[in-house]
Amino acid sequence: MADDCVKVGGLGSNFKLIKQGAEAKLYKGIYLGRPTIVKERFKKSYRHVDLDNRLTKERMKSEARAILKCKAAGICTPALYLVDFERRRIYMEEIQNSVTVKDYVAQMSEEAVNGDADTGDLLMKLNPIAQEIGRVLGKLHANNIIHGDLTTSNMLLVNNGKDIPTVVLIDFGLSHVESSIEDKGVDLYVLERALISTHANVDQLFQVILSSYVEENKKQCREILKKLDEVRARGRKRTMVG
Amino acid sequence: MVIAIGFEGSANKLGVGIVRDGVVLSNCRQTYITPPGEGFLPRETAQHHRSVILAVLSQALQEAAVMPEQIDIVCYTKGPGMASPLQTVAVVARTIAQLWNKPIIGVNHCIGHIEMGRLITGSDNPTVLYVSGGNTQVIAYSRNRYRIFGETIDIAIGNCLDRFARVLKLSNDPSPGYNIEKLAKEGKKLLPLPYVVKGMDVSFSGILSYIQKQSHQLLNSGKYSPEDLCFSLQETLFAMLVEITERAMAHCGSQEVLIVGGVGCNMRLQEMMGAMCDERGAKLFATDERFCIDNGVMIAQAGLEMFKSGNVTKWHDTTVTQR
């Protein structure tokens, strides 16, 4: 079955394009009898060819490595099926019955507006999700995995029949392994800013996420929170030196 | 018919410009240029601004053929920027406003760039890449405010380029960035450099310290020429900017990009951004050095828009702020 795809040079009629992001195309289909997503990173013509090849290869490697490490650590990610450097494709498990945290929060916010609920009610509904996200991130960093692009579009919620859905992390192209505090602080900072810019009405969720994060990552949490404050104070809010 | 005069001096450019209902009547500017290998410091920059501002003001009035009585509002850069240069300009603006008895408006420097960009290019609701010596941000307008989606988490790209120019001892005339661009055109070999994108943010201090440390060795070994280094730095830095801009566009569903700020003059950056836009079916808007580089007109224009929506700065608020 994999041979058919390879022979044709393309993915064959088996696969359908479902999404096109800034960096890659996502195809959906069946591979080895399982529902599969193929992530194909396209060539960026604006970049120098060498730079483009180097970045794509690095990101594919990072993604594959991070997924395997997460599996070993017990963090939910799609299962990795195949990595094809030549065609810049990664074949992975399609997580079914899922919705991104971004869409879920947007949906809840809209329902709240329509139902005349206030922000307090909305936050209460979202709290369990935020807590679960914090737990997963705490585990991620406790295992020295840096995601590199934490946004609500890169977290999936899967209905598992229990009260709290499973949080699945995706899109590890910018990830790497690092035990230092600096990168973990920056990782959290990226999430905080993503929340503020995308879900401004519920950015208090970040505090909820942090509170369960520190429970899960007890070893380094104090220093990481301090580092987070430091990172927040950089850039625009710092005196221009040099 | 409102005529606005704008004063800008947050960095080393001192600009005075006059605008009337979207038409630029005059745009005068003087730049404080330091010797090769040196950057500009607050005290000397403020001294420079003090020494030229009145002359530039007269020139602006003359070129616009406008008398002080005809000016309706006085606008100045409230911030962000360097404290003493900002203060120097604010003092003059305050004095002028009182002498001529006109309302005064403190304008945000970054918004000045954006409003000018929009006026000159006619773009409607673009994703804005604001890149200069002091700023590197990706901005989009949402829910009544300009919001920052991505930015540098340490230094600005212009600052990175300027500091590298010092390592190569390039001339600062007309600007270090311009001379890097010139050299880069002759560069051929791509040196692998650290490429740091964190989510929608970028970080330049790593690539700067790497290239500062390695330059001498690389140049002495004969493997890379100064042209190659400039070329490699631009290709890498600009690719990072294009990437975060593209992410913001994908996030906001935007089909327009506007580049503002001094680094926006760089033709290679415009070229790369254009290539990305073509692939997405989006449109690129950019201005030339008259408006990319800090100028007084952008302050006048933004001030005018603020005035039209009822915003005037109270006297005790006519201060400046570094951030």
Descriptive labels:
heterodimer; A: 242 residues; alpha+beta; Phosphorylase Kinase, domain 1; Transferase(Phosphotransferase), domain 1; 5-stranded antiparallel beta sheet; 3-stranded antiparallel beta sheet; 7 helices; disordered N terminus; B: 323 residues; alpha/beta; Nucleotidyltransferase, domain 5; 2 domains; 5-stranded mixed beta sheet; 10 helices; 47% helix; hydrolase activity (chain A); tRNA processing (chain A); EC 2.7.11.1 (chain A); non-specific serine/threonine protein kinase (chain A); nucleotide-binding (chain A)
Specify the CATH architecture of the largest domain in chain A.
Answer: Orthogonal Bundle
Order of helices and strands of chain A: HEEEHEEEHHEEEEHHH
* Alpha-beta classification of chain B: alpha/beta
Report the largest inter-chain contact.
A-B, 35 and 44 residues
The first-level CATH class of the largest domain in chain A is given as Mainly Alpha
The CATH topology assignment of the largest domain in chain B is Nucleotidyltransferase, domain 5
Q: What's the arrangement of strands in the largest beta sheet of chain B?
A: 3-2-1-4-5
Radius of gyration of chain A: 19 Å
Largest sheet of chain A: 5 strands, antiparallel
Query: Mean pLDDT of chain A, as a whole number?
Result: 87
Number of domains of chain A: 2
Q: What is the general shape of chain B?
A: globular
**Rough shape of chain A?**
globular
- The number of E-state strands of chain B comes to 12
Distance between the termini of chain B: 33 Å
